[in-house]
Amino acid sequence: MADDLNPHHDLDLSPLRADLAGWSHWESTPVDATALGKLAWKLGFGHFDTDSIRALWRIGLLRADVVTAEAHIEVPGFGPVTSQDGFRFIDLRVPKHRPQGALSFIPDGPAPEDHLTPYFHPYRVFLLHHVVRTLRVHTSSTQYLIYTPGVQRVVDWQLRDLQRWTESDGFIARFDHWNRVTEIAIVCEPVRWAPPEAATASSDEVLLLAYCQRLEVVLRSLPLYAIHTIRQAFAMSADELDSNKGLHTLLRLMKPFERDRIQGRIGAAMKFLDMAESIRRAAERLLSVQLPEEDEIGPGTWMEGARRNLYGTDRVFDASPGMLRDYLGTFGLDAGVKARCYVEGQTELGALRHALGTSNQCTFINLKGAVVEKNGRGLQFAESLASDKAGGIFSFIMLDADRDDYVRALRRAAENETFHGAFQVSEPDVELANFTARELLDIALTMSAQMLDESPSQKYEVRDLLSEIEDARSGGDFFKRLQSGGRLTEVSKGEDWGAALMGYAIDNPTFPAEHPRSGQERPLIQFARMLIRAQKVGFRLSLEYEKLNAATGALQQRQPGV
Predict the structure, then answer these.
(1) What gap in Å lies between CA 237 and CA 243, rounded to an integer?
(2) Computed over its alpha carbons, how large is the radius of gyration of the chain?
(3) For the whole model, what pTM was predicted?
């Protein structure tokens, strides 16, 4: 792996590191040894106290980003930095090979570094990750209980292996490499703050713009494959710590402040992916290229088009919140409106609300004028449909065939693809388009019995009215005939009636044997299914692959090129 990254070994990052170390706007970023140890503990790397961090720094395995002194001092490996804030240096040391391995790393007496105070960019936890990964001594959790002498045997074997590791040239080379790639991420990170133009920039921003120009020269000296390999190393380390890649993407959509509060191994994974993103952002901005995002560079392979299918976009971390609502919806986290349903009356409203249950991702508009959404306002019908599509919201419309004005506007909007969703025109209305007269009578009887706390059989004589209502021309006509003479006045059209119709349809989803469409699913059930589905699928994915059929009112798969 080190050979793959040879191009970055010749990079001279010291001017950029010196710029950052002397820049007052950056001074809040590095932390002292105590704070770095606490960050390591928070991220699940175990106990690193102040002395441990200083020891790693003193022997050069962990380089500092800013070093301060009480007075001017010359210490080999430390370069002075121009600063108005006291005596500052950058750590330029390269750890030395120690043939005696770990024993020769033990500090022996005072050292010039004792007069210096190191400060570290939080990204340096990447080095502590490798300290834990390559120098850890451990045995099975049950080894002591199963075979106690085996503990010492395992530890002795690991100590011999660690001695060979720390004696090798590779030990020093790897830690130098990990310091270098961390420094590449560190010098790239401030580019996120850079203003787009210098014309209105503050003095600090002008300095940053000049810094960006110098960073551009450095990045252009790196081949893109080396940038990719460095970023991939961070992504692979993140996956080693936590392999929940889908969760990583979700968490990285959080605000940076909230993401930085995540603890444990997944918090460390977030930090490493953030390092990879810092390099990507700098390269994309300064080199005018587009690089794979962080979820694309770890283990695994994306098939062509898979990211768009999952996220609704190919560029997740540059997408607007509205663009990502489909992805958030797969986690059940999108609390926004995904579908808007236009109905013609309280009966349809009650039926569809009953089918959706407690869902808050669908709002209803009664086209007779009542707006059934909190603090909502009605819009002109066609304008409202177009607004839905622009906002990534499915439109569902249920109308009676006798409303010619609405039906004409609806079919015209469907043909012009003004909206995306589905519609249903009930002939003549929702009652008679979905139920036989006998079924409507049974539903009304059941409702009446429930309201009067009676058994349906006590009202069975009302069935004698079947001959009067079986040729009803509409739902309104059905009730007019049924309630003549003051009968069943406790039941009427409205939300409760609609809920009862849907409840019956759910229990009996197909037309009965005496109906001409016997065995076919009721249109009311079909419409409810489409409405429920809309809250589970992505709007933009559906828009890309499905098209509203203006004749049937249902969504169907788009033909290629259409």
Answers:
(1) 10
(2) 35
(3) 0.69
